Amino acid sequence: MTQKNRSSAAGYTPAELMLHAGELFGVREEVVSGALYSETAERFTVEQAAHKIKQFMKAKVK
């Protein structure tokens, strides 16, 4: 993804974000999958996904 594409407000599917998880978020695909698992939206901006990933990583395991 180019810098222009990353800032696009249109957003990306979870599959697209998972393909580039390392370069965009510094995490593995599984983390992106877990962070977006219960979300109902079909597309996310990079910023939205990053926020969801941060929340996911901070969540306590029960």
Explain what you see.
The protein is mostly helical. The protein has one domain (3-58). The protein contains five helices and no strands. It is globular and about 35 Å long. Mean pLDDT is 88; it is low at 4-8.
Quickly count the domains: 1
Q: Overall mean pLDDT score?
A: 88
Q: Specify the helix fraction band.
A: 55-70%
Spans where pLDDT lies below 50 across 5 or more residues: 4-8
SS strand fraction: under 5%
Largest sheet: none
Could you say which overall geometry the principal axes of the C-alpha atoms support?
globular
Number of helices: 5
**Whole-angstrom Rg:** 11 Å
Quickly list its features.
62 residues
Q: What is shown here, in short?
A:
The chain has 62 residues and is an all-alpha fold.
Please describe the topology of this protein:
Layout: H1 3-6, H2 14-19, H3 21-25, H4 29-36, H5 46-58
Helix pairs in contact: 4-5
